[in-house]
Design goal:
Length: about 160
């Protein structure tokens, strides 16, 4: 579930989210929320508190567009985050010999040191994928795998993968 700054900043956000879980009979462990790093930085202390409450219900938290919002490493340790998603701006045009590779390598090392999952966004070439695998990314998104598709196409794609 992608959350906007407006949603997470709402005073009743946690209570409303909890009500939604209860009314849908959905276990929190089946839910992952995603917030952008810039949204997080708008009110870091408020986000820590709210995300900690959601985490208590088993909800996983991902930080999207990581590397663009200047998150303090001290805050990163306090957040109940399970996944970092490296912003596609670091992946675009990535070649192992470039300076950008050092940044991605550093983010990967930090994520692994903090026991976080790491997702690379915007993967478009086999060369990028090979490099990202070598630095320990756990998952990948991008046109290398598929252009954006609707739910019916996604269902068919997944069913074909099972066969």
């Amino acid at each position: 579930v992608n959350l906007s700054a407006r949603q997470i900043e709402h005073p009743d956000f946690v209570a409303d989210f909890h009500r939604m879980l209860k009314s849908s009979h959905l276990d929190g462990s089946w839910v992952e929320i995603e917030i952008t790093e810039s949204t997080l930085m708008r009110d870091i202390d408020g986000c820590i508190s709210k995300l900690a409450q959601l985490s208590e219900w088993g909800i996983e938290v991902s930080i999207d567009d990581f590397g663009t919002g200047y998150t303090s490493l001290g805050y990163l340790q306090k957040l109940p985050v399970t996944t970092l998603k490296i912003d596609q701006s670091f992946i675009h045009g990535l070649k192992p010999s470039m300076h950008g590779a050092s940044i991605v390598n550093g983010i990967a090392a930090m994520a692994k040191g903090l026991h976080l999952n790491l997702v690379a966004e915007g993967v478009e070439s086999a060369e990028q994928l090979d490099f990202l695998k070598s630095v320990g990314c756990d998952a990948y998104q991008g046109f290398l795998f598929s252009k954006p598709i609707d739910s019916a196409q996604a269902t068919a794609l997944l069913q074909n993968q099972l066969h």
